[in-house]
Specification:
Elements (H helix, E strand, L loop, with lengths): L3 H12 L11 H11 L5 H14 L3 H5 L3 H8 L6 H17 L7 H5 L6 H12 L8 H12 L10 H10 L4 H17 L18 H4 L19 H14 L4 E2 H4 L6 H13 L4 E3 L3 E3 L14
Antiparallel strand pairs: 1-3, 2-3
Helix pairs in contact: 1-11, 2-3, 2-8, 5-6, 9-11, 13-15
C-alpha cells in the first residue's frame, strides 16, 4: 500500500491546484509573500493581490525602497493589514542582513521580522526543497484523523504535532517538501473540518478516524468569528479612507465612517498602536511615513 506520504504525493500529482506561488518562477520571495498573505485568508482572495504585489515588488529590495504606507495601500481589503507591515519590515531586513536574497537557513528565516515557525518552515520547504515539518491546521487535521483516529488536533500546533508530521515525511528532502504540500492540499480540499469527502480521499482505506466511525469532536465546536459591528470592521473602514487619500485626513472626516464615537476612537487608537496609522499635526491621520510631522495624541 505504501506510506501515507507516498499515497498523498501520488494524489497531489493529479489533484494539486495550479497556484502561482507553486510554480518554479515564483522564487523564494514569491513563496514568502504567499505564505504571509495566506494566513487566515482564502486562496481566491489572495491570488489577485499576490500577482499585483509581485508585479510591483518582484524583489525584497523593491518593497523595502517604498514607504510602509504603500504596502498597506496595496494590501487593499485582504484583511489583517498588520501582515503588510510585517512583509515590509521583512523585506527591509532581507536587504540589510541578507543582501536582498531570501535566506534558505531555517534559523535565518525565523529571525526575520514577523516570520514565525510555520512560515519559516513553509518557505524552507516550498522555496528551497528542504525536509521540514510544515504544520498548519489542515495538516494537523489530516494527521489526527488518518493516523491518530481523532476528529481534530486541538487549537494550536504543538511540538508533538511537529514530531508526528516529521515522522511521516520521506527522507529525501525534495520529496519531503512535496509531501508537505500534499498534506496541506488534502486538508484544504478533501479532509475539511466540516464536510470531509472521505470517498475522494486517497487515505480512506487506512484512515483510523474513518474506521472508528468518524467520531465527532468532544468539545464545543468553534464558531467562525463575527465581523459585522466589531472593532475589526471599524478598523477596516478607517483604513479604507486613509488608503484612498493622497495625504493626511482630518479627524472630522474619519468621524463619518462609524456612528459610535467610543468604538471609533478605540479602533483608531488600536491602528495607531499597531503602526498602521500615524497621528499628525492638526488632528489629522495618515498611513505611516506619509507625513513626518507626528504628534503624541493617537486619539485625535
Amino acid at each position: 500500500m505504501g506510506t501515507v506520504a507516498e499515497a498523498l504525493i501520488d494524489w497531489f500529482a493529479v489533484h494539486a491546484r495550479d497556484l502561482p506561488w507553486r510554480r518554479p518562477d515564483a522564487g523564494p520571495w514569491g513563496v514568502l509573500v504567499s505564505e504571509v498573505m495566506l494566513q487566515q485568508t482564502p486562496v481566491a482572495r489572495v491570488e489577485p493581490i499576490w500577482y499585483q504585489w509581485l508585479a510591483r515588488w518582484p524583489r525584497p529590495a523593491d518593497l523595502a525602497a517604498d514607504p510602509p504606507a504603500e504596502a498597506i495601500r496595496a494590501w487593499g481589503r485582504l484583511g489583517y493589514p498588520r501582515r503588510a507591515l510585517r512583509l515590509h519590515e521583512c523585506a527591509r531586513s532581507i536587504v540589510t542582513r541578507h543582501g536582498g536574497e531570501v535566506p534558505a537557513e531555517l534559523t535565518d528565516l525565523l529571525a526575520l521580522p514577523g516570520i514565525g515557525g510555520y512560515t519559516a518552515r513553509a518557505v524552507a520547504a516550498f522555496a528551497f526543497g528542504q525536509r521540514q515539518a510544515v504544520v498548519d491546521t489542515n495538516v494537523r487535521r489530516v494527521v489526527a484523523r488518518a493516523v491518530a483516529g481523532t476528529p481534530d488536533a486541538g487549537p494550536a500546533t504543538t511540538a508533538a504535532d511537529l514530531a508526528a508530521v516529521a515522522g511521516l515525511l520521506p527522507a529525501e528532502p525534495a520529496r519531503a517538501a512535496r509531501a508537505s504540500a500534499a498534506f496541506m492540499e488534502l486538508g484544504a480540499l478533501v479532509c475539511t473540518a466540516r464536510a470531509p469527502r472521505c470517498a475522494a480521499c486517497p487515505l480512506a482505506a487506512r484512515c483510523a478516524w474513518r474506521r472508528a466511525g468518524r467520531p465527532a469532536p468532544e468539545g464545543p465546536t468553534r464558531r467562525p468569528q463575527a465581523y459585522a459591528g466589531t472593532d475589526r470592521q471599524v478598523r477596516g473602514l478607517l483604513l479604507a479612507v486613509l488608503r484612498d487619500a493622497t495625504g493626511p485626513v482630518p479627524a472630522a472626516q474619519l468621524d463619518l465612517v462609524w456612528p459610535d464615537a467610543g468604538q471609533r476612537g478605540r479602533a483608531l487608537a488600536s491602528l495607531v498602536a499597531d503602526g498602521l496609522v500615524s497621528a499628525v499635526e492638526g488632528h489629522r491621520y495618515a498611513l505611516p511615513h506619509e507625513n513626518r510631522t507626528m504628534t503624541g495624541d493617537p486619539a485625535g
